[in-house]
Structure formats: structure tokens, C-alpha cells
């Protein structure tokens, strides 16, 4: 009888251990970079960044009253290269329509970013800024790039796209914000954390 | 107690207090220690399970520099960590938060200890009961089953919580892709077209956008899109005809260039000889632009022979034909 109780207790412990392992395993696949940004529906962190080519810093507060599309990019990021054309075409399409496109260089020297943009192309309607010390990237909680934040006319973060954006995603998100909606966060693809991977 | 003893005791207390003070001062964390200590608690966002204090990545170094700045500025440890969590959420902490689903991680060792203690106590209180051949009471028989049941329920509850906390599939912005094209602005369509110039499926969107411009009377914006569809190698015959017909009409209506318009209608008719729209518009331009009532009347009659012509269109063509036959001039 005592042996049976020991056996039952062992079963109980085994079942509990298996359950615990299942719970832990279920968390394995969850990428911390994919958690909802705590910035959503909160005031966008202020920044004042100088253009890559130099010049007067551009502050987020200078763009108040416009929808701001804030994109973090680098030449070493494959997905960033894929989405660049869409960012340029969308910036061009919304030029003069109350939408400011701001692309911030991430973990890359300004000369490298400039050389990349010289080849990949620029939109006359977009701003290309440097982020020394990654202060703005840290303030926006960037885990990897590309990440694109959408800030409404009142300065609230209302959208975030993790991964490559296409022109439809960018444009439709802007359309939604113009209608007064908060598009929220979506994951469209993978991101790259560093030049090595 | 003698005076000497009291003095020695007092001196001893003073020495002890001084020693404690020296030890406390010597062991109070320096600013460098604080930076390191905070860095050890923060997960490097671009690494795998490594703290920013241990990671050689540029991002980790930048975050350590930020922490150093904040410490130098007099911020408390918690204020610095809170600032980072405001941007990154609790996912940035190496130690899981003591709340939500991760509370289990903190409670599990205590729970296991408690279960162990209960089991040991239970055995000690009933060491030989079963061995002596006594029949176990029904409640005692049920006890292991209850333990198993509780464990099972706990597992299901916790697993459900954990799964619920996982980020769902792409929501929010991605949902917009399912929206009707009618909610998409001209600017978005322009951007999509500009970034998909080599995509054969873009002809349909070009035509839809051009149609919007055409209907609003913005021929200038519509023209390049109709032209691109008309010249596209990937557009369907229907799309090419639709574009050529619109181009022809805009050339006539906007610039009063009758011959250029007729040339475009002819191109449409080469692609689709049965296009009633191309025939009708060509007839209108022949009549109104070149005063060629004979050819115009023939074409109007051709159009009327189309069994699929709508009632409205048929009425319009019949009116035009009647006007030609009765010698009434073009409207």
C-alpha cells in the first residue's frame, strides 16, 4: 500500500514536471522582439537628429501636425534594401499631403549610409538622419531592423510595422491614420539585428 | 561594574560602530558598479540571452553608455530601468517579471518545496499504517487522485495563460490589406504602382486609379496611367482597349485633336474589332470633329447591331443617328 502511494506521488510529480516543461517550451518560440510595443498609443519619444549629410538637427516636434513615418534602416540590412523602393515611392506619393517620411540610420556610420542612399535612391520628400549612440533607436525600443513607426498628427505612436514594408502597407496605414484610426502593430517579415545576422 | 570596565565597554562599542561604518562605506556600490549591476539585469535586445554588460555588440555598448550617463546625472537604478522598459517592455529584463505567466517561474521552486514538505510530513505521520495491513480510509484513497487532478488543472490554466500572452499573428496594419480598394487613397495607389513597375499585376490598379482621375475630370493625372496600360505587354486585351478608348476620348475632349483621337480608337478596334465603345466614340469624333456624317452614321448603325448594348446606350446612339439623318448638327 505504501509502495502504491509512493508510485502515485511520483506520477503526480511527473505530470506536474511535464506540464511545467510544456509551459516553458511554449514560450520558446516567442521572440521578445515581437511583443507589442509599449509605445503604442503613447506620445512618441522626442528626438533631434542631424541629417546624414550634416546641417541643422530635425526635431520630431518640428513635424507636429503631420503624420510621421519613422523608419530605421541600414545598408547591411537585407530587408531594408527590399523595402527602400516602397519607402521612396510612398514618400513621393504623399509629398505635400501632410505626411513626413523620416529614415534614421541604425548602427551605421553616416558615410556608409550616404553611399548606400546614393545607389538606392532618395525621395526629395524624405529626411535621412543620423542617430549617434543609437539614442533614438533605444528610445523607440528597436530590436532589429527594419522597423517602421507611424506617429499621428498629435504626436502619438499609432502604428508599427516590424519587417519589410511594401507600398500598400505604408500607404494604407497612412490612409487609416488620416481617417483617425490607430492601425496598431503588425509583423510583415523578419528583421536583422546586426550586420552579422 | 567598575569605572574601568564601563570605559572599556564604551570604547569597545565605539570601535565596533566605527568598524561597521568603515565596512559600509567600503562596500557601498560605486557608480561603475551601479552601471555594471544595471547592465547585468538588462537583456541585450540584439543578442540571444546575453546581458548588455556582457555583450560586445554596438547596441549593448550604446545602452551601457546611456546607463552611465543616467547614473552620472543622478538617476536611481529603478528610474533608469523604467526608462528602458518604457521603450522595450518587460521583455528586456533578463529576470522574468514577478507577475503574469512568469510568476510561475518564481513560485515553482517554492511550490515544489512545499509539496515535498507535505509529502514527508504525511509519511512521517502514517509510517506503517498500510504496512500493518490496515485498510486505508476512502478519503486517503482519494488523496493521490486529488493531487493529480489539481496538478492537471494547474497545468492547463498556466499553459493557457502562457499561450495567450504570445503575440498573435500579424494584426492591425496587416488587416488593411484585406480592405476594399475604395478605402485606399490615390496617393497609396500611386506609391504601390511606383514601387511595382515590373509587376504584371499592377495594370489593374493603374486602370482603377486612372479611372478615378478620369471620372473626376483630372485628365492630366489619368493620362500617364492609361498610356502605361495601353503600352503594357502584360495587360489583358480588355484592359488595353479600355485604356485606348479613354486616351482617345481625352485627346478629343481635352485637346480637340480629332485625328489623334480617331487613331487611338482605331488602335482599340484593332485589338477588339467588336468594341462598341470604341466604335461609338469614333463615330462621335468623326461627326463632331471631322463632320464626316457618312462614316459616323455607319458606325452608329454598327453599334446598334450589338445585342449586348445597354438600353441607355442604345437610346443615346439612336438619338445621335436620328440627328445625323435629320441634318441636326453635332451637340
Q: Helix and strand layout, with pairings?
A:
The complex is a heterodimer of chains A (197) and B (331).
Chain A: H1 2-28, E1 48-49, E2 58-59, E3 67-73, H2 78-93, E4 99-105, H3 110-120, E5 126-129, H4 135-139, E6 147-151, E7 157-162, H5 167-178, E8 184-187
Parallel strand pairs in A: 3-4, 4-5, 7-8
Antiparallel strand pairs in A: 1-2, 3-6, 6-7
Helix pairs in contact in A: 2-5
Chain B: H1 3-27, H2 31-41, H3 58-72, H4 77-88, H5 103-125, H6 138-165, H7 186-194, H8 202-215, H9 219-231, H10 237-255, H11 258-271, H12 276-290, H13 293-304, H14 311-325
In short:
The complex is a heterodimer of chains A (197) and B (331). Chain A has 197 residues and is an alpha/beta fold.
Walkthrough of the structure:
The complex is a heterodimer of chains A (197) and B (331). Chain A is α/β, with parallel strands linked by helices and 197 residues long. Chain A contains five helices and eight strands. In chain A, 36% of the residues lie in helices and 19% in strands. In chain A, the strands form two sheets. Chain A has a six-stranded mixed beta sheet with strand order 5-4-3-6-7-8, covered by helices on one side. In chain A, strands 1-2 form a two-stranded antiparallel ribbon. The model of chain A has no long low-confidence stretch (mean pLDDT 89). Chain B has 331 residues and is mostly helical. Chain B is built from 14 helices and no strands. The longest helix of chain B is centred in the middle third of the chain and has 28 residues. Chains A and B meet through helix 1, helix 2, helix 4, strand 7 and helix 5 of A and helix 3, helix 4, helix 5, helix 6 and helix 7 of B.
Amino acid at each position: 500500500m505504501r509502495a502504491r502511494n509512493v508510485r502515485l506521488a511520483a506520477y503526480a510529480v511527473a505530470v506536474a514536471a511535464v506540464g511545467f516543461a510544456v509551459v516553458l517550451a511554449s514560450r520558446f518560440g516567442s521572440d521578445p522582439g515581437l511583443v507589442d510595443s509599449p509605445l503604442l498609443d503613447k506620445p512618441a519619444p522626442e528626438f533631434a537628429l542631424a541629417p546624414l549629410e550634416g546641417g541643422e538637427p530635425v526635431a520630431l516636434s518640428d513635424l507636429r501636425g503631420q503624420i510621421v513615418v519613422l523608419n530605421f534602416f541600414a545598408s547591411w540590412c537585407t530587408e531594408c534594401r527590399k523595402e527602400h523602393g516602397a519607402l521612396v515611392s510612398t514618400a513621393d506619393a504623399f509629398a505635400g499631403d501632410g505626411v513626413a517620411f523620416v529614415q534614421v540610420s541604425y548602427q551605421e556610420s553616416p558615410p556608409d549610409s550616404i553611399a548606400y542612399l546614393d545607389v538606392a535612391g532618395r525621395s526629395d520628400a524624405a529626411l535621412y538622419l543620423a542617430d549617434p549612440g543609437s539614442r533614438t533607436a533605444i528610445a523607440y525600443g528597436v530590436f532589429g531592423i527594419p522597423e517602421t513607426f507611424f506617429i499621428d498628427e498629435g504626436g502619438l505612436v499609432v502604428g508599427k510595422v516590424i519587417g519589410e514594408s511594401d507600398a500598400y502597407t505604408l500607404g494604407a496605414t497612412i490612409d487609416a491614420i488620416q481617417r483617425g484610426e490607430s492601425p496598431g502593430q503588425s509583423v510583415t517579415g523578419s528583421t536583422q539585428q546586426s550586420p552579422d545576422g | 561594574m567598575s569605572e574601568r570596565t564601563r570605559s572599556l565597554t564604551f570604547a569597545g562599542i565605539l570601535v565596533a560602530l566605527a568598524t561597521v561604518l568603515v565596512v559600509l562605506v567600503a562596500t557601498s556600490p560605486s557608480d561603475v558598479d551601479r552601471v555594471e549591476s544595471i547592465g547585468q539585469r538588462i537583456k541585450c535586445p540584439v543578442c540571444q540571452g546575453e546581458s548588455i554588460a556582457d555583450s560586445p555588440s554596438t547596441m549593448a555598448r550604446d545602452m551601457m553608455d546611456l546607463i552611465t550617463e543616467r547614473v552620472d546625472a543622478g538617476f536611481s537604478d529603478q528610474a533608469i530601468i523604467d526608462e528602458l522598459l518604457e521603450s522595450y517592455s518587460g521583455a528586456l529584463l533578463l529576470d522574468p517579471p514577478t507577475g503574469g505567466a512568469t510568476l510561475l517561474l518564481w513560485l515553482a521552486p517554492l511550490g515544489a518545496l512545499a509539496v515535498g514538505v507535505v509529502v514527508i510530513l504525511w509519511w512521517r505521520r502514517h509510517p506503517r499504517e498500510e504496512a500493518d495491513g490496515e485498510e486505508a480510509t476512502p478519503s486517503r484513497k482519494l488523496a493521490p487522485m486529488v493531487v493529480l487532478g489539481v496538478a492537471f488543472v494547474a497545468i492547463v490554466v498556466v499553459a493557457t495563460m502562457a499561450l495567450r500572452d504570445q503575440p498573435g499573428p500579424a494584426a492591425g496594419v496587416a488587416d488593411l490589406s484585406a480592405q476594399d480598394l475604395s478605402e485606399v487613397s490615390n496617393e497609396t495607389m500611386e506609391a504601390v504602382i511606383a514601387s511595382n513597375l515590373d509587376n504584371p499585376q499592377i495594370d489593374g490598379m493603374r486602370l482603377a486609379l486612372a479611372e478615378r482621375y478620369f471620372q473626376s475630370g483630372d485628365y492630366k493625372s489619368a493620362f500617364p496611367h492609361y498610356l502605361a496600360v495601353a503600352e503594357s505587354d502584360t495587360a489583358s486585351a480588355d484592359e488595353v482597349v479600355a485604356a485606348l478608348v479613354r486616351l482617345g476620348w481625352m485627346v478629343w475632349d481635352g485637346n480637340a485633336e480629332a485625328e489623334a483621337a480617331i487613331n487611338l480608337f482605331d488602335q482599340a478596334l484593332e485589338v477588339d474589332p467588336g468594341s462598341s465603345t470604341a466604335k461609338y466614340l469614333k463615330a462621335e469624333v468623326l461627326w463632331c470633329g471631322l463632320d464626316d456624317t457618312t462614316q459616323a452614321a455607319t458606325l452608329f448603325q454598327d453599334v446598334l447591331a450589338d445585342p449586348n448594348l445597354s438600353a441607355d446606350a442604345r437610346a443615346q446612339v439612336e438619338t445621335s443617328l436620328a440627328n445625323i439623318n435629320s441634318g441636326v448638327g453635332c451637340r
